[in-house]
Amino acid sequence: MFIEQGIKPENKFWRYIVGSIFIIIASFLGQTPLLGALYYDTFINGKPYPNSNDDIMRFFEPNLTLFLILISFVFAMLGIFFVVRYLHNQTMLSITTSRTKIDWKRVLFSFSIWAIFTIISTLAFYLFNPTDFVINFKPIPFVILVLISTILIPIQTSTEEYIFRGYLMQGFANLAKNKWFPLIITSVIFGAMHISNPEVSKMGNIILVYYIGTGLLLGIITMMDEGIELALGFHAANNLVSALLVTSDWSAFQTHSIFKDISQPSAGLDVIFPIVIIYPILLFIFSRKYKWTDWKEKLTGKIA
């Protein structure tokens, strides 16, 4: 069973606290290239130092900014590997899946179904609300964006999944000895992690409902499927396709995407609709394909 794979007598919860601190430090070290570039342009080239996160996002050319931001996740992933291997004496496979090897067909299926949905829904929004968008496509910057995104965004999303649905889910299972607490707490922390995103300041804290709901979806499919493969595919499709299709002045990533959303941001049905309609449909598709059973035990049961 996936969540039980990290439960050992010597795997005390304090190790997960130490491990999390180490991963955070590794992520901070990964921000050194961004800080170095900022200091170079301010002290050497005389540009004014950015005063806010929004200013930082607009300080460099968008592709360079995206590259510098995503590099930190490479360091964080290395931190995860080090902590899992040497602090917990586990393998990366043990926080990936309960299967004997990673099921890449699951990753691909989840990626494909969510990528197709994202593309169709984005085009529908564009067709029904054309005044809310402008064509942002520039061939050469877009090709560079594709190269950066296809390499680094899957690393970014996989890092988040390994932290929340792999490492911390097993960690909180060690603490609580049940399944519902790791599911809830990792979803809340995942949502709270996005509180500094610019769309939160534009739309208000109500947008956190969407982030927490997404974390809950990813936690449910991880626990029901006994591994994070489906979560890996979903998260990669969500961030990658979005980065390539649409940007805006208030989104987390400023990119040379195909479209630019120029509408006034507001949180309404677009926040609730995925949580109450789309995500349950996705769960139904996954459950039918992979024949999930015993939902209550897998999501709320005790751990011996």
Summarize the structure.
Residues 142-241 form the CAAX prenyl protease 2/Lysostaphin resistance protein A-like domain. The protein is an all-alpha fold and 304 residues long.
Overall radius of gyration: 20 Å
Instruction: Report, as a whole number of angstroms, the end-to-end distance.
Output: 12 Å
- Helix-strand string: HHHHHEHHHHHEEHH
Compute the average pLDDT: 93
Q: Could you give a short account of the major beta sheet? A: 3 strands, mixed
Number of domains: 1
Sheet/helix structural class? mainly alpha
Word description of this protein:
- This protein is mainly α and 304 residues long.
- It has one domain.
- It has twelve helices and three strands; from the N terminus they run αααααβαααααββαα.
- It has helices spanning 13-29, 32-44, 53-57, 62-87, 104-128, 139-176, 180-192, 198-203, 207-225, 229-245, 269-290, 295-300; strands spanning 133-135, 246-248, 259-261.
- Strands 1-3-2 form a three-stranded mixed β-sheet.
- The longest helix is centred in the middle third of the chain and has 38 residues, at 139-176.
- It is globular and about 60 Å long.
- The N and C termini lie close together (12 Å).
- The relative contact order is 0.15.
- The mean pLDDT is 93.
